[in-house]
Design brief:
six-stranded mixed β-sheet
Length: about 650
């Protein structure tokens, strides 16, 4: 047993954060601590690190923290380097002070042995050599350089002043220092944030083989599945230990909850049976003794706790796009992206209802691609275009968390600034779908957590009802339940999605295609994440060539891929006037049918609104009023679509008659 917490309580003022915590770290265990945002995960890490103390009274002898010997605890805290002018190399080398001290002492002994040649000095020197080897004193330089490069740095970056790096890069430097220090207990809070996939995969292997203990707070489910031996969950201020990784934890929790529910119901049924028997016979002289016996049976029962509902409160939003896009949603042809210099050249086609994940190493241009297609950055070359009727919504998690909005502004006022024409009930309904209910809407922006800022930004974007979602790292700052809620929403979404993410589990659940930014260029894979991994492995082994290159079955690939990009940019190849006319007429008929249905619904609602029995039912009247306004907006949108389609049809007929 390396470390143990017994019956700990942690509270701030009157708020209890953790209650009756029992926590153990054994040998080389890799431990996950999971739970909802704000449940106390980081608080537990701070307690282990010694940054905070237990709140138990001094008289509580049951509580306490014990360690086996002198355990070195390493914790990646808020980054604050003492001197931003020193080089990264100088900062990292601070980790190896014990090695340098050992080297210095060995040199001193060498000098002394030259003068004296005593046997005792030779023994001391041999002991220091063994210590030097145990500290990694002969390999530390190579280990430092390898790890530094694994985190996406170039070796020449070691010479740069640490203050010249961004906050995210400084966090990576601190992470490198922590790993190189090799503590007995390593505490990691969201270690995969801001790391690209190759780095995450390398980190998985490193931690799995780390010969000491690691405690990890993370929402990265695939990372937890690959690394973890034990899972602790914090729920309702309590903590519970489950052997196994995240998937194992989910199964065990469901099984335990089902068993507890059955045991509770069985016990309650038995208590009711005994109580009824006692009430019936307690006044009968011949049954008094038996009644008392049964009462004692009830009193001595170890009561099964009533099962609590899982804390699964999450945002719930299912919206339909305002209009339906055409089949070709977005096409890029030799699109060159970058700022001052070229990062990547991209060619791909995005079809309606596809969900394309943009993945790859950091610095290759994934987020830059999204910024380019939404017009925030000018392309350096090539071309791209959106298809007909495409209305996009863009989410940038970095801007959502770091945007310079007035910190004194409340959530509801910030939302109202974007949608000033909405009524309060409409604003509250929209915010409520993203867990801003009651007084939460009056919370100031400066006090919002990262997860809350993300939810607010998503809420504002979804309100426009786009048919194309362009999302940059949407799951960063989200807890596990939030991620699952977003997955459910995107799977049911009737539009199209283009998203950047490093969350492999999220990609596995959502993506129907992969746009891979690799060293050799950008490749598109028309498959889900798991099949993408299989194809990549076959390419690595040489069993198949690069997708679309050197394949033995090029015709099959071409057929599966559908129209080529040249087809997308040069529509004349597929132009069929008769088919186009038929499609437009069918579309007009469909819109007219939808308009008729809406008019019928509107008439029914207007009649309900006049009903005398509703004159005093304010909530019901408001509900009907909102539905009437929604139908009116629907009709306005349908009329616009009919007019646009009729205009397009008229232009087509005039063009055909001219030919």
């Amino acid at each position: 047993m390396r470390y143990q917490i017994r019956h700990a309580v942690v509270q701030y003022a009157a708020d209890v954060i953790l209650e009756d915590v029992n926590f153990e770290i054994r040998d080389t265990e890799k431990i996950a601590v999971i739970g909802r945002n704000g449940c106390g995960k980081t608080t537990l890490l701070k307690l282990i690190a010694g940054d905070i103390q237990m709140s138990n009274p001094d008289s509580d002898e049951e509580c306490g923290i014990t360690m086996a010997g002198d355990q070195k605890i390493g914790y990646l805290r808020q980054i604050s380097f003492e001197d931003g002018n020193i080089s990264v190399e100088e900062e990292i080398l601070k980790v190896f002070e014990p090695i340098f001290a050992c080297e210095k002492r060995m040199k001193q002994l060498q000098e002394e042995m030259q003068l004296k040649g005593e046997k005792a000095l030779l023994q001391k020197y041999a002991s220091l050599q063994a210590q030097m080897e145990a500290l990694g004193g002969y390999t530390y330089r190579k280990e430092m350089e390898t790890m530094f490069q694994k985190f996406g740095f170039a070796l020449e970056d070691l010479k740069r002043p640490i203050g010249s790096f961004s906050g995210g890069q400084q966090t990576k430097v601190a992470f490198v220092k922590l790993l190189l220090s090799r503590p007995d207990i390593m505490l990691l809070d969201e270690p995969t944030n801001h790391l690209d996939m190759p780095t995450i995969e390398w980190l998985e292997g490193y931690l799995k083989n780390y010969n000491k203990a690691v405690v990890i707070v993370s929402h990265d489910r695939m990372f937890l599945d690959h690394v973890i031996d034990v899972t602790y969950e914090i729920e309702y201020h309590r903590i519970k230990r489950y052997p196994g990784n995240y998937t194992s934890f989910i199964r065990q929790k469901e099984e335990a909850a089902l068993k507890q529910e059955k045991d509770y119901e069985a016990q309650q049924k038995e208590i009711r049976r005994l109580t009824e028997w006692i009430e019936k016979w307690k006044n009968t002289p011949t049954k008094v003794t038996t009644a008392r016996s049964k009462q004692k049976m009830i009193e001595h029962m170890v009561l099964v706790e009533k099962p609590r509902r899982f804390d699964t409160k999450a945002f719930k939003v299912q919206f339909r796009p305002r209009i339906e896009s055409y089949t070709d949603v977005l096409a890029a042809k030799k699109l060159e992206i970058g700022y001052d210099s070229l990062l990547s050249q991209v060619t791909f086609t995005l079809k309606k209802k596809e969900r394309i994940a943009v993945i790859g190493e950091n610095g290759k241009g994934k987020s830059t691609l999204l910024k380019t297609v939404v017009g925030k950055i000018d392309p350096l070359g090539g071309e791209y275009q959106f298809g007909g009727n495409v209305e996009w919504g863009y989410f940038d998690q970095q801007a959502a968390v770091e945007e310079g909005a007035d910190p004194e502004l409340t959530v509801i006022d910030d939302f109202w600034n974007v949608y000033p024409r909405l009524k309060e009930v409409e604003v509250r309904n929209a915010l409520g779908c993203f867990l801003f209910s009651g007084d939460d809407v009056f919370k100031k922006l400066g006090l919002l957590s990262g997860g809350e800022k993300v939810r607010l930004a998503l809420c504002k974007m979804f309100m426009t009802r786009p048919n194309l979602l362009i999302l940059d790292e949407p799951t960063n700052h989200m807890d596990l339940v939030g991620k699952e809620a977003l997955e459910t929403m995107l799977k049911a979404f009737e539009g199209t999605v283009l998203f950047v993410s490093h969350d492999r589990y999220f990609i596995k659940e959502i993506a129907t295609g992969i746009l891979d930014f690799a060293d050799a260029g950008v490749d598109f894979y028309d498959c889900g994440y798991e099949e993408y991994l299989e194809r990549k492995e076959k390419i690595r082994k040489g069993e198949i060539g690069q997708l679309g290159k050197n394949t033995a079955n090029a015709e099959k690939n071409k057929k599966a891929a559908g129209p080529t990009l040249s087809d997308v940019f040069d529509k004349k190849t597929y132009y069929n006037p008769g088919r186009m006319e038929s499609r437009l007429k069918g579309q007009i008929k469909k819109y007219e049918e939808q308009l008729s249905e809406s008019e019928t619904r509107l008439a029914e609602l207007q009649l309900k609104q006049l009903a005398p029995e509703l004159s005093a039912d304010y909530e019901k009247l408001m509900e009907i009023t909102n539905r009437i306004e929604e139908e009116e907006r629907t009709q306005e949108s349908l009329l616009e679509r009919i007019l646009e389609t009729e205009t397009e049809l008229q232009e087509l007929l005039e063009e055909n008659s001219g030919n």
